[in-house]
Amino acid sequence: MKYDAFISYRHLEKDMFVAKGIHRALETAGIPRKIRKLTGKKRVQRVFRDQEELPIGSDLGENIEAALRESEFLVVICTPQTKESAWVMKEIDTFIALHGRENVLAVLAEGEPEDSFPHQIMTDDFGNPVEPLAADVRGENYREIRHKIKSESLRLVAAILGVDYEDLRRRRRERVMRRMVLAAAAVALAGTAFGAYNAYNLNRINENYRQKLINESRVLAKTSAEVLAEGDRKTAALIAMEGLPKEDDDRPLVADAEVALANALDCYSLGHELTTDRLLKHKATVVKCAINAEGTYIASYDAYYNYYIWDARTGEKLVEGAIIEKTDDNNSDRQKILGVGIRGNTAYFVAANELLAIDADGNEVYKVSFRKENYRACFDIAYKLVAVSSYDIISVYDTSTGILVGEKGRGTGNFFDFEMAFSEDCRQVAIVYQDTNMVAEIDIETDEKRDLTIWGNMVVAIGYTDDGGLVVASIMKSSYYDQDPAPMMVQRFDEDSSEPVFEKEYTFYNDNSYACDYWRIVSRNFSDDEGTHDQILIAAGKSLYTLDLHTGELINRYTVPESYITKMMYFPENENAFVCTYNGNLYLFNAETEATSEENAGNVGKRIVQLEIAGGQYVSTSINSPDIRILNIRADKAIEDVDSVRIGSLSLGASPDESTYLCAVSYKEGLDDDNNLVEITLYDSETDKKLDSFTAHGVRHEDVFYADEDTIMFTGASGAFGWYTISTGELHETNLDTDNYYWENAVSPGHKYHFFYATFDGVMLVDLSEKKKLIEGTMVLPGRINGAVVCDDKRVFISTINGWLYSLDPDTLETTLLEKNLHIGGVDNNIKLSSDEKYLLLCCSDGMVRLYDIENKTVVEEIEFYPDSVSSSFGISSDDSMIFLYGDDSYFRIFDRNTHDFMVEMSASRVTETGMEEYTQKNELAFGYYNGMYIFDLDNYSLLGKFPGGATYISKYNKVIIYESGGKLRKVRRRTYEELIEEAKEQFGEDAALTPAQKRKYNIG
User: Fold this and answer.
1) For residue 463, which of 454, 472, 455 has the smallest C-alpha distance?
2) Which of 845, 847, 862, 935 is nearest to 897 (CA)?
3) I want to staple 15 with a disulfide (CB 3.0 to 4.6 A). Which of 9, 342, 404, 990 is the partner?
4) Nearest Cα to 916, choosing from 892, 899, 900?
C-alpha cells in the first residue's frame, strides 16, 4: 500500500499538536536490525495526515478516500471532543468498511478511554466490547505530552510492523546502548586520549541511566508506603513491584522497593496488630455498611444510593445496583436508601418506598413495597427484623421472608423521630418522639404501644437489657450544642410499668456538634471470683459508663483521651471492654475498675463513623470517604517455631562465625541477688536444632557473651565467673573472690579483657583468655564513674559524672586526666571504643557527639546529637567511616565521615541502648528497638527490613531469631525480592496489575 498509516484527528489545538508529534515519531522511528530482518521493513515508510479541516456536512474528498484506501493502518487521535467530529467518524467508518477493525489504532490525548474512544473502535462486528490497541500520551502540559509521544509511539510502530511491543522496546534500548558503545569505540580508534574520554563518557551515560532507575525505584517505594498508609495494601504492593527488577529489564535491585513490597504484604508480622487488608472502593461516600456474622460478606450503600455486596475475604465486588422508581412525570429516579443489613449471603436494602433482598450472586430474593414513604430504618443486632418509620407509622418486617410482622401508628402525639432500638428477644421496639421528652415502646406481636416519659428532650443513647428493661440516656438539647459537660439522666423502665425503676444523673462529656448514630446501651452478666456481676454499659459522648443493672449506681466511667466514642464493644464473659474513637483509636480497658490504660490498642482509620466486627474482620467507614476499610490481624505464615524457653528477661546472640546462637534467660530462686540464675540454651544456626542447655549462677542474662566461636563466658556483678566450651560441652563455674558489687562492665573488642567498675572508685580487671582476675582496687577520682571502655592491650578509658575523660593504668590503678572541656554526659555508658581501638566516641551533654583520636588526643569529628538518657544509642562502624546515632527525636541517623553528612535520617521506634550489631561480611547493621529489630544495608544506606520481635540476626543464613511473649522462640528468613513477588501473586492473583488510570495517577510509565 501507499501509506503505512493514516492519522485521523480533529483540527483543535491539542489534537493537532499530538497528531503532528505522532506523525513525526512514526516516520523517524529507528528500527533495530533484527526487527528489520524479521519484517523486511527498514522504517515506517509513509504516514498520511490531512492538514485541512473539512466543512461540516461535506463528504470526504477524493484524496481523503484514496488515502484511506491506500493506508494499512488508521491512527485515531482521541479526546472527549473526537466523537463530535463528523468527519473523524466518517474516516473511521470508511476505513472499517475498506479494511476492517483490526488495523484501527488509538492515541489517547485527553480524558478517560470510555469518554474519548469512538464507539466504532470499542466494539467488534457483533457489538461485543473490545479493548483497542492504544497509546497513552496524556500529560499536564505540551512538554509532558511531547515526552510521552516519544515513548508511547513505539506501541504504534510495533503494531504497524507486526512485532511484539516489549521485544521492540528491548531491542531498541539495546540498539541505543550498542550505538553508544560503537561510537565510543570508533572515537577510541582516533586517539587514545579521545578514546579514554569517550569511554569515560559512555560509563557516565550508563551510570546516569542506572542512577535514574535507582531514583525511580526509590520514588516508587515512597509512593507505595504512602498508599499503604492510606490503607490500600494491594495497590501499594503493585506499585512497589514496579520498582523491582523483572526478567527482561536491567533495573538494579533497590532495597527500598523490596522493603515497601514486604510491608505491603505484611511480611514478618507476628499478628499482634491490626493492619488494613483491603479497601472497598465505592462510587461516592459510603453511608453505611453491614457485615454478616461469619465475616464473609459485606453489604453497603453510598451517598448516590448505589448498593453493593462484597466478598469480605478477597475484597471482590459481587453486586452493584440501585433501587429505581418511577417519578410522577414517568421518569426514572434512584430511591433514597435508609439502611442495610446482611445475614448469610443475603443483603437487605431498605429504601424509602421498598425493602429489597438480594443475594451475593445478584439474584433478587424478594422486593416489598411500603404503603407510605419512610424516613428511618433500624435493624436488630442479628438482622432478623427491620423497623421502618415514617413520621406517623412504625412498621416491622421479618427479613427472611419480607413479611410485615407488626405495625403501629403514633396516634395523636408528636411525630416519630429517628432513634430506635430492638429488645434482645426482638419482641419490642422503642422509638423516640420528635422534640419532646417521650419514647414509644411497641409490642411487635400485639401492636400495643405504651408512651414513656423521659427526663430530657434529646436522647443520646437508647437500648434494652438482657432481662427486657428499656434504658434511656437523655440530656437537654440546649446543653448538647454548648459542647460543655452537661447533666445526663439515665432511666430504666421495666415491662410492667411506665414509671422508671431508677433515675440516675451523670455528667455527659462531648466535643462533637452532632449526634452519633452509634452510641449504645447494652447489658451483660458475668461471674468471677468475686461473684456475679449484672451491668449496664452506656457509650455516649466521650465516655463509657458502667452501671449496676438493678440500681443504676455508677461502677466506673472511662473517658477517652481524645475525640469521642463511635463504637463500643464488650466481652460478655468478663469485665473487659473496648471503645473506638472518631480518630480511629481502639482503647481496651477494665470496665469495672478505676484502673484504665491510655495505651492505644490499635487504629482502624481516621474520622470513623462506623466500625463493625465479625469473623475476625474489622470493617470501618469514615466521613466523606468512598472506601470501606477492612482490617484484620495478619501473621506471617513464614514465621516458624524454634523452641519454648523459660519466661523472663532474656538476651540472644550469635557466635562470631555465626555457627551457633544462644538464648540466655534470667530467673531467681529466692530474693537474694546471689541467687540470680541464667538458663542458657545453645542452638545450631543452620538447623535451629537445640545443642545443649545449662544454668549459670550469680549472673544476669546480659552478662553472657561469646568469647570466641567455641567459648561462652559469663561474669557476674558479685564476682561469679564461668565459661562453657561448645565443642566438649564442659561447663566451668568459679568466683573471682570480690566483696564489691560492680554495677557496670566493659569487654575489650577482641574479648581479651573484662573491666568492672562500681559507681564510685572500685574497679576490677579480668583476663578472659587466662580466665583469672588481674587486679582489683580503688581509684582517686573527683566524681563517680559514668562510663568506661577497655582495649585489648589493657588500656582503660573512663568518663566521670563531671564530664571529664581519664586514662587508667590497669597495673597501678593510677589515672591521668586527658580532657575536661568536652562535656561528656547526657547518657549512662557515654563512651564507646572503635573496634580498631583508635578512637573514642563520646556522647556529650552539650548536644554533641565527639570522635576523639586517642593517639593524638584531639577531637576529629563533632556531630550534633541530642540524646535521651533512657533510650538513646550511638556507635561507630568497624572501619571508622560511619557513626550511628539514635537521639531524643526518635530518628536513626548514619553520619558518613567521608562526606561529612548524614546519609540516613529515618524515623524509628525506640532503640535499645545495647542494640547495634555490625555484620562486616555483608556490610549490614542490625539495631534493636524495644520489641524488634531493624536491618540496614550499609553499602547503599538502605533499610532492608523491620522485624517485630527480632532479637538476633544470623546474617550467614539471612534469618532473624524472634522472641515472643510467653517464652516462644521463633525464626523467619528475610525474603528475596523474587520470593516477595511470588507471594504478591499468591495474595492478589497471578494477573494482578495496576490499571492505566492508576499508572497515570502515580506517574508510572
Assistant:
1) 472
2) 862
3) 9
4) 892
Tell me, what's the pLDDT at 601? Answer: 66
CA-closest candidate to residue 628, choices 222, 360, 297: 297
Distance CA 599, CA 570 (A): 17
From residue 527, give the alpha-carbon distance in Å to each of 196, 328, 534, 572: 87, 60, 9, 10
| Residue with more model confidence, 931 or 318 | 318
pLDDT at 61 over 90: no
Q: Is 549 exposed, middle or buried (0-12, 13-18, 19+ CB in 10 A)?
A: buried
Q: Which residue in 516, 454, 518 sits closest to 480, CA to CA?
A: 516
Q: Which 3 state secondary structure label does DSSP give 998? A: helix
> Max alpha carbon distance in the chain (Å)?
113
Q: Would you call 516 helix, strand, or coil by DSSP?
A: coil
Query: Which residues on adjacent β-strands are paired with residue 573?
Result: none
Q: Which three cell numbers stand for residue 881?
A: 567511616
The cell for 712 is 561462652
DSSP per-residue letters across 470-488: EEEEEE-HHHHTTTS-EEE
pLDDT in tens, 147-204: 899 888 888 988 888 877 766 666 555 554 444 444 444 444 444 444 555 555 656 6
C-alpha cell at 630: 477492612
Residue 367 vs residues 200, 342, 354: alpha-carbon distances, Å: 77, 15, 7
Length of the chain: 1005
pLDDT digits (tens, 9 = 90+) for 737-765: 888 888 888 999 999 999 998 866 789 99
Q: Which amino acid is at 737?
A: D
Environment class of 98 (CB within 10 Å of its CB; exposed 0-12, middle 13-18, buried 19+):
middle
The closest of 79, 125, 85 to 106, measured between CA atoms, is 79
Q: Looking up cell 536513626, which residue turns up? A: 892
Q: Are residues 230 and 257 in contact, defined by beta-carbon separation less than 8 angstroms?
A: no
Instruction: Show the cell assigned to 676.
Output: 540470680
643 near 661, Cβ under 8 Å? no
Mean pLDDT of the chain: 87
Q: Give the CA count within 13 Å in the CB-facing half-sphere of 790.
A: 23
Distance CA 866, CA 79 (A): 57
The whole-angstrom separation of Cα 752 and Cα 750 is 6
Cβ contacts of 382 within 8 Å, gap of 6 or more: 293, 343
Distance between CA atoms of 637 and 457, rounded to whole angstroms?
54
Q: Hey, is 107 helix, strand or coil?
A: strand
Asked if 145 and 138 touch (Cβ cutoff 8 Å), the reply is: yes
Instruction: Give the pLDDT score at 483.
Output: 67
Q: What is the mean pLDDT of residues 493-505?
A: 92
Sign of CA dihedral 678, 682, 685, 689: negative
Find where cell 538464648 sits.
663
Taking a C-beta distance cutoff of 8 angstroms, is the pair 289, 628 a contact? Answer: yes
Phi, psi of 212 (to 5 degrees): -60, -45
Q: In the β-sheet with 814-819, what is the strand arrangement from edge to edge?
A: 785-790, 796-800, 805-809, 814-819
Spell 982-1003 as b/e; 16+ CB within 10 A means b: ebbeebbeeeeebeeeebbebe
Across the range 355-368, mean pLDDT stands at 97
**Residue 586: is its pLDDT beyond 50?**
yes
pLDDT digits (tens, 9 = 90+) for 202-257: 566 667 778 888 889 999 999 999 999 888 899 999 999 999 998 767 789 999 99
Higher model confidence: residue 331 or residue 224?
224
Measure the CA–CA gap between 989 and 920, rounded to whole angstroms: 39
Residue of 502, 499, 549 lying closest to 522 (CA atoms): 549
3-state secondary structure of 908: coil
Strands 3-8 and 71-78: parallel
Angle, nearest 10°, between helix axes 165-190 and 192-230?
A: 150
Cell numbers 548514619 correspond to what residue?
Answer: 894
Give CA–CA dist 1004/999, Å, rounded.
5
